[in-house]
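quick one, two chains, predict together pls
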Amino acid sequence: MPESNKKIKILLVDDDELIRIYFRDVFWIHGLEYKHELLLANNIKKAEEIINNEETRPQIIFLDLVMPIERDGKIITTPEAGLETLKKIKSDPKTKNIKVIVFSGHKDEKFQEEAKRLGAESYLIKGDNLPKELAGFVEKIALEI
Amino acid sequence: MESIIKLENVNLWYDKGMPSEVWALKNTSMEIKKGEYVAFFGPSGCGKTTLLYTISGIEKATDGKIFINNRDISQFSRKELAIYRQIGVGIVFQQFNLIPSLSVLDNVSLPMAFLGVSQTKREIEALKLLDRLGIKDLANRYPYELSGGQQQRVGIARALANNPPIIVADEPLGNLDSVNAQKVLEFLKELNEKDGRTIIMVTHEAWSLKDAKRIFYMKDGAIIKTEESKAATVAESVSEHFYKELSPQLTSSEVTARALSNLLLRGYSTNEIKRFEFFLTQRFADYIDSETFRRVLDRPYQDGGIGLWKQKAKKMADYVNEIIENKKTVEEIYKELEKNPESPLIVEIEKVCAWLLQDYRGKISNIQKIRLNEIIGERLRSIIDAEQFHKIINLSQTKFGIGFSFRTSQKVSERLEAILKNENHGQLSI
């Protein structure tokens, strides 16, 4: 087992509590938490704090698309929230090497193409993975770090 | 190996503080390693199912800690427990618990639907599981169209749906005949050995413990003993928990053991006879050897034995050895009869006859002996039944019987039936 300071940091950004619990439990049940450190953010602001802090900056991000975001003083929920965050990460020299996997319920090819264009490593559809497959995917990506 | 399940001082009360309060789990501490196959064994109401459901996140402990992969689930919220139940454990129930209005495919898919898995993906995965269980052809049927064995296989497929590392089986054999029960046991073993899953089986049937590597003995809500499972030690230690209710489909060993226990321990208490019956079953199934059997018979009752005198224990163990030997002879006879129904089997029948008369102190004429051999042959060929056999050997020679006293007739008849029990002789066409 790697020492804790050598664990790969993986951040999940999702406003759905059940998805956060599910993701955490997949780590727990399938033994990933021994190898990697899972960080959770329930909104974009919290995610940015984690990403911009060198101490907590993850090497891998699982990013939901449809999340609340502030627009003209109002909170709206839109896929643009995730895409904008992805764009920020990939355009900042300090964070552009972070592997970003879009983790979304949207199957729409338009979003998949846009995510790819913005530099996402992969696009994972939430309903297409069983727990063990998700764990396997995390392992595979972590090996590339 | 690291532990996957660890309990520390877990207590569970039902209706605490009320007149109906029950202390269902008492200061329970235990540890199960990853990839182990264990069993919780004990009589009905001992708390084994409560313990299983507590580990599975269905029952909530009153106090204590329940670590799964080093995380204490006793502190989990309802949402957290709901997800743990979906991905951490797969449960196989005694009553199958299938949803009657859903097809087999939909029943197996259901746990995946709870996780938001898409319908296409669910169907692909469910069909894979049904294929693995050998029931892919039943995908579109409904539970009421299936046999008990088929329903339990659907139940196992459903338990595997989200690929959980822990499989718990709550009396999974209780509603199955012996053939299907055996299949389920084989499959649980495969899940353990091939997939590396941790298996916990709850049972009150000693014979189903054979694949478990460790057994937790439970009584009155507490684990009173944990033991590495070796055939002999299971048999020797299981007696005090023995409340075995034999299933309608008994094995050959069980049938013989039941018949003989009442015969050999006449005058003993029901508990002594039941305990004896259990060890006899183990002996017939060859799970324990003659020496272990003799020791159990000799051991005081309060220490888990039968409490016979040394000499009687030895005599009884020897007698059981003879039965085992003679059962082999009978098996050979049936094999021969299957090949050639007209085979006279003179030597084999004489062997059985000599054993039946081993303790007979009276004289027997040549005519009586020839006649007795004929009657034994007729009984072996199922031309006559046990009752007719008993009657004929008790009849006087003038009425073409053997002329044995009632007591001798009974003894000889019982001995013969002891080695015939559950043999396939009723189906021979002679």
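The interface with chain B takes residues 17-18, 21-22, 25-26, 28-31, 105, 125-132 of chain A (CB under 8 Å).
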